[in-house]
Specification:
The complex is a heterodimer of chains A (200) and B (256). Chain A has 200 residues and is of the alpha/beta class. Chain A is built from eight helices and six strands. Chain B is of the alpha+beta class. Classes of the chains: A alpha/beta (200), B alpha+beta (256).
């Protein structure tokens, strides 16, 4: 880093802290920014600051939001009897993009992970239980990722919530739309068979 | 650029960049290998669900020799061990097993006996045997296979020959009452527990899985976890997960 002027070295260091950015990419991004007009770079830096200054976590569902409660929690048209549990705010956005779901959400901000030592106390499980004690929810949809961590979280929550007498469902798993059956692996295909349903 | 091919078990992974993943395998022919599986996090990836934890498959990789990470080209599933993931206790014990393999071994250090023990243990976890017993049987034999077999014939601190009254299990094996007082982190052990440990080590695998050993199983499990934690220099991560999960089911086994 001694070859670079101090501000360049500082930016390279800072960019390297971002996930998925190594020293080479950080260097490339820094020199890209150096070539851009100053207005463009100022806009970028202002956007970064605005995210930190104006975005908070909704105290009800833990989604990222500009106001607390977030627009979904505050919307009276949303079906309060349905609660969809997701791992991260990005998963909530993916669900919203479908336009199919009109219920509310709960963001866990993580998933149980035995190999990383992430337990129920490290994610928003207690907060979910507190929300459900309100008695408004009739169905909890477990929409955690279909990987080991997501499955472990869904299994844990299903066991934890069963005594509350609420309907607990898990999002379906199987073949992606437009996929070819012959290329599906045996795990995906067996999940698709397990979750088959009557047609016509 | 060298092309490698081996049967292997997925023992860990983490995301890399936009859609890649760094996957850790324990392979039959190359030991522990870490590699990049390009685009494996995409929904329509050619790897699909093949790179999930515990999956046994046939791996093909390129080793450029320029990086610690190889490039994973193929991973064809031989057995997904899907039943292990359907129950929290099984999942926790299987995770403890793969954590031991991942953290007690070095990369490219081939160990066919450990590979066979890993696959055998995952198979047993899909069957009717209580998961805690499978983990204990794995732990006892894995320590032996990797050259960390605890000493049970004499106190590991003062060398006093066993048997002696009120033995404990500590760093490296059995400890007498006088030495146990000075050493923190001891696990209490009854003579029956030390006998059970020897028995689990030397008996046929199928018999070791089913022989009743009562509460010795919990004591051995606690010792194994303490021993692995000492070897890796920090507490195992999966033990915490197992404790959390058991709060929901206080009646389930408690080893390791």
């Amino acid at each position: 880093m001694t070859y670079y002027p101090e501000p360049v070295a500082r930016l390279i260091e800072a960019l390297q802290q971002l996930p998925g950015i190594g020293p080479k990419t950080a260097q490339r991004l820094t020199f890209f920014l150096l070539k851009r007009p100053v207005e463009e770079v100022r806009e970028l830096s202002e956007s970064l600051l605005a995210v930190k200054d104006r975005i908070v976590s909704c105290r009800t569902c833990f989604n990222v939001t500009e106001g607390d409660p977030c627009r979904i929690c505050a919307d009276p048209a949303r079906d309060a009897r349905l609660l969809c549990v997701v791992e991260e705010p990005n998963d909530l956005l993916a669900m919203e993009r479908t336009g199919e779901y009109r219920g509310r959400y709960h963001v866990l901000l993580g998933a149980l992970s035995p190999l990383d030592g992430v337990g129920p106390d490290d994610i928003k499980v207690k907060e979910l239980l507190a929300r459900l004690e309100g008695g408004e929810t009739a169905e909890v949809i477990l929409a955690t990722n279909p990987n080991v961590e997501g499955e472990a979280t869904a299994l844990y929550l299903a066991k934890l919530l069963r005594p509350l007498g609420i309907r607990i469902t898990r999002i379906a798993r199987g073949l992606p739309v437009g996929g070819d059956l012959e290329y599906a692996d045996q795990v995906t295909l067996s999940k698709a068979l397990e979750g088959r349903r009557e047609i016509g | 650029m060298a092309l490698g091919k081996s049967a292997a078990v997925v023992i860990g992974s983490f995301p890399l960049g936009e859609s890649d993943r760094v996957v850790t395998f324990y392979s039959r022919d190359f030991g522990k290998i870490r590699g990049v599986a390009k685009a494996s996090r995409r929904i329509r990836s050619r790897f699909a669900g093949a790179l999930e934890l515990f999956t046994l498959g046939e791996m093909v990789f390129f080793d450029t020799g320029r990086s610690e990470l190889v490039r994973i080209d193929h991973f064809d599933v031989l057995h997904p061990f899907d039943r292990v993931r359907r129950d929290l206790e099984r999942l926790g014990q299987a995770s403890w097993i793969v954590e031991c393999v991942a953290r007690l071994t070095a990369e490219h250090d081939r160990h066919v006996a450990l590979y066979a023990l890993l696959v055998r243990s995952l198979r047993a976890l899909e069957g009717p045997v209580p998961p805690a017993r499978v983990a204990v049987c794995f732990g006892v034999r894995a320590l032996e296979t990797l050259g960390h077999r605890p000493r049970l014939d004499a106190c590991t601190v003062c060398g006093r020959a066993y048997p002696f009254p009120r033995p404990a299990l500590g760093a490296g094996g059995v400890v007498c009452e006088a030495c146990a007082r000075e050493d923190a982190g001891m696990v209490t052990a009854r003579p029956a527990t030390l006998a059970a440990f020897e028995w689990l080590r030397s008996e046929r695998w199928e018999e070791a899985l089913v022989m009743p050993i009562g509460r010795s199983e919990n004591e051995i499990g606690a010792f194994l976890d303490a021993q692995v934690s000492r070897l890796i220099g920090q507490p195992t991560r999966t033990a915490k997960f197992l404790r959390d999960v058991r709060r929901l089911e206080p009646t389930s086994g408690v080893s390791p």
